[in-house]
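Action item from last meeting closed. Structure (64 res):
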């Protein structure tokens, strides 16, 4: 299953940044590089595919 299969669904993502490792729960809104997520707080977060450590479907309902 690729990233495209999770488009507009709730996901959990763990990724690296310049400041360290970050985890978010949100919705995947764009799967091209960079991938774009809307966090549960409503922020738009770009993530490079190379920085992803863990990616899976979120449990329960994700509102954004």
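Sequence:
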């Amino acid at each position: 299953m690729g990233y495209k299969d999770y488009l507009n669904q709730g996901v959990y993502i763990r990724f690296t940044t310049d400041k360290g490792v970050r985890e978010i729960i949100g919705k995947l809104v764009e799967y091209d590089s960079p991938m774009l997520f809307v966090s549960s707080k409503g922020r738009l977060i770009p993530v490079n595919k190379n920085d992803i450590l863990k990616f899976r479907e979120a449990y329960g309902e994700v509102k954004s």
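Note appended to the action item: The chain has a mean pLDDT of 87.
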